[in-house]
Amino acid sequence: MKYQRLELILKDDFEKLQNAKIILLGVGGVGSFCLDCMIRSGIKDITIVDYDTYDESNQNRQMWSELHEGEIKVEALKKHYPNVTIINVRIDEEWVREFDFNDYDLVLDAIDDTKAKLAIAQKCYKKLISSFGSAKRLDPTQVQVDDIWKSYGDKFGSKIRYELKKRGFKKKYTVIFSSEEAQVKEKGSFMGVTATFGMVMCAQAIKKLRE
């Protein structure tokens, strides 16, 4: 009964979700909503990776943050989603290079470290969904999905494309981005946009699992 209404939409494909193995990198404003969406969609085998702790500034946009100020994010989230596997580590370029992603059907990138994102793209592009900048924006209707080379309107995404070209990388992978012009120079954030990025990431994961 728990997933009955989703099964009405997915039909036989629902089993693909239940058998999937996914790793989610970053569980902040984007990643925490993606995680919640995946759990509620019947995806059982999820590994979450993050090193950060919750502070008061997270509470405008991150799931469960108001209940766990000062706690390690992945450990706090396991209290709400007890079946997830947690890795409390800083996701940097070296960690990406050394970590074995082979067992996962999808790699979901919700981090904002440029060098780590580049390393993830080069290593995991065949099964990668990557989030670009969700901060500084107010309009969730301008969140879009396309391949890396068709994304636009985002300085962070532009930097990623530039650096990938410098490295001779020409492969395609899925990215989530906003075409909305940044509203401020500072890194302000609105949950309506950051959560939309997370929900779209979840939806794209389901789409790819059904292919």
Protein described:
With 211 residues, the protein is α/β, with parallel strands linked by helices. It has one domain: NAD(P)-binding Rossmann-like Domain (Rossmann fold), CATH 3.40.50.720. A seven-stranded mixed beta sheet has the order 3-2-1-4-5-7-6, with helices on both faces. Helix 3 packs across helix 8. The two termini are 25 Å apart.
| Mean pLDDT rating | 94
Sheet with the most strands?
7 strands, mixed
The fraction of residues assigned to DSSP E strands is 15-25%
Task: Compute the number of helices.
Answer: 8
Give the uncertain stretches in residue-range form: none
CATH architecture: 3-Layer(aba) Sandwich
For the record, what is the CATH homologous superfamily label? NAD(P)-binding Rossmann-like Domain
Computed over alpha carbons, the radius of gyration is 16 Å
Task: Summarize, please.
The chain is an alpha/beta fold. It has helices at 4-10, 14-18, 31-40, 73-80, 93-98, 114-124, 155-166, 191-210, and strands at 21-25, 45-50, 85-88, 106-109, 128-131, 143-147, 174-178.
Keywords:
7-stranded mixed beta sheet; Rossmann fold; 211 residues; alpha/beta; single chain
Topology:
Elements: H1 4-10, H2 14-18, E1 21-25, H3 31-40, E2 45-50, H4 73-80, E3 85-88, H5 93-98, E4 106-109, H6 114-124, E5 128-131, E6 143-147, H7 155-166, E7 174-178, H8 191-210
Helix pairs in contact: 3-8, 6-7
